[in-house]
Amino acid sequence: MPLKMSPFGCWGLPAALLALFCCPGSGETFEVHMYPEQLVVEPGGSTLINCSTSCALPDTSGLETTLTKSLVASGTQWKQYVVSNVSQDTIIYCYFTCSRKQKLKSLNVSVFYPPKEVLLKLKPTRVAVGGSFTIECWVPNVAPLESLTLTLLRGKEAMHNKTFRTMALAPQEATVTHNATAHKEDGHHNFSCRADLDLRSLGGDIIHGVSEPQTLKVYGEGESPEGGGGREHSSPIP
Ligand SMILES: *[C@@H]1O[C@H](CO)[C@@H](O)[C@H](O)[C@H]1NC(C)=O
Ligand SMILES: *[C@@H]1O[C@H](CO)[C@@H](O)[C@H](O)[C@H]1NC(C)=O
Ligand SMILES: *[C@@H]1O[C@H](CO)[C@@H](O)[C@H](O)[C@H]1NC(C)=O
Ligand SMILES: *[C@@H]1O[C@H](CO)[C@@H](O)[C@H](O)[C@H]1NC(C)=O
Ligand SMILES: *[C@@H]1O[C@H](CO)[C@@H](O)[C@H](O)[C@H]1NC(C)=O
Ligand SMILES: *[C@@H]1O[C@H](CO)[C@@H](O)[C@H](O)[C@H]1NC(C)=O
């Protein structure tokens, strides 16, 4: 039998066998894409996913996920799905087969719990000049913790911040505590706490939350800590 070049570039083997076992690099090469490439959603959220391929005439295709999914629209080379009720971090796969070859693409889906509530407490709320006080900020039910920074502010000035490096699967409470010495000017500023959940590395934005402002009553030496609110407006102590 003469050596004859088959259309697939291998010698003398039936085409069907060729496609299956021979020449892994031969035949049509194609790619699978998923859009978006990264995804971060709130619990219960839903999102659109577009799976597409460079294969001109794909045989089959689909989306592998444990989530509720439905096909929204499709073309020869793409399918758009909506997946809904995302409740935890998950991986979604999209596949196409083309000339009996299958290719997969995966998408990491992360769930985030935004800093809805940011709470701030000054302890005590009345303090003498030079005395110490504690600023405590906490954010319940936030995730992922490793994307969170809490910043304590005096007016617009950042006094202290904390970035949480711990990996945590479930949403939890984040707290930061800072001890400070009271200055006379502290009575003229509002204290607040800002929470920044930086989801950019997961394909999202920065989500901000801020506490209600809190004021510190600072009294001078010789002034009574029990003194009524009216005293703040009286003339300063000599
Ligand atoms: C899905 O992606 C493909 C390839 O990028 C594009 O041609 C198609 O229009 C997209 N479909 C939708 C509904 O956006
Ligand atoms: C959404 O997911 C949660 C937890 O997996 C489940 O309890 C709930 O029934 C689901 N809701 C819908 C509308 O599918
Ligand atoms: C997706 O998640 C897997 C397992 O958690 C990880 O190894 C991989 O690097 C992630 N991919 C991307 C693009 O973030
Ligand atoms: C936190 O504080 C450090 C030093 O005080 C500063 O360099 C950094 O930029 C702050 N981070 C944020 C997110 O504000
Ligand atoms: C703040 O001060 C209190 C009491 O003086 C102390 O118990 C606590 O450890 C201090 N906290 C920090 C974060 O320095
Ligand atoms: C502090 O906060 C209160 C309440 O939001 C506001 O009325 C007041 O103007 C603020 N004071 C300063 C100095 O920013």
TrEMBL record:
<dbReference type="InterPro" id="IPR013768">
    <property type="entry name" value="ICAM_N"/>
</dbReference>
<keyword id="KW-0325">Glycoprotein</keyword>
<dbReference type="GO" id="GO:0005178">
    <property type="term" value="F:integrin binding"/>
</dbReference>
<feature type="compositionally biased region" description="Basic and acidic residues">
    <location>
        <begin position="229"/>
        <end position="238"/>
    </location>
</feature>
<keyword id="KW-1015">Disulfide bond</keyword>
<comment type="similarity">
    <text>Belongs to the immunoglobulin superfamily. ICAM family.</text>
</comment>
<protein>
    <submittedName>
        <fullName>Intercellular adhesion molecule</fullName>
    </submittedName>
</protein>
<dbReference type="Pfam" id="PF03921">
    <property type="entry name" value="ICAM_N"/>
</dbReference>
<feature type="domain" description="Intercellular adhesion molecule N-terminal">
    <location>
        <begin position="28"/>
        <end position="116"/>
    </location>
</feature>
<keyword id="KW-1133">Transmembrane helix</keyword>
<dbReference type="InterPro" id="IPR036179">
    <property type="entry name" value="Ig-like_dom_sf"/>
</dbReference>
<keyword id="KW-0812">Transmembrane</keyword>
<dbReference type="InterPro" id="IPR003987">
    <property type="entry name" value="ICAM_VCAM_N"/>
</dbReference>
<keyword id="KW-0732">Signal</keyword>
<dbReference type="GO" id="GO:0098609">
    <property type="term" value="P:cell-cell adhesion"/>
</dbReference>
<feature type="signal peptide">
    <location>
        <begin position="1"/>
        <end position="27"/>
    </location>
</feature>
<dbReference type="InterPro" id="IPR013783">
    <property type="entry name" value="Ig-like_fold"/>
</dbReference>
<keyword id="KW-0677">Repeat</keyword>
<dbReference type="InterPro" id="IPR047012">
    <property type="entry name" value="ICAM_VCAM"/>
</dbReference>
<keyword id="KW-0472">Membrane</keyword>
<feature type="region of interest" description="Disordered">
    <location>
        <begin position="213"/>
        <end position="238"/>
    </location>
</feature>
<dbReference type="GO" id="GO:0005886">
    <property type="term" value="C:plasma membrane"/>
</dbReference>
<keyword id="KW-0393">Immunoglobulin domain</keyword>
<keyword id="KW-0130">Cell adhesion</keyword>
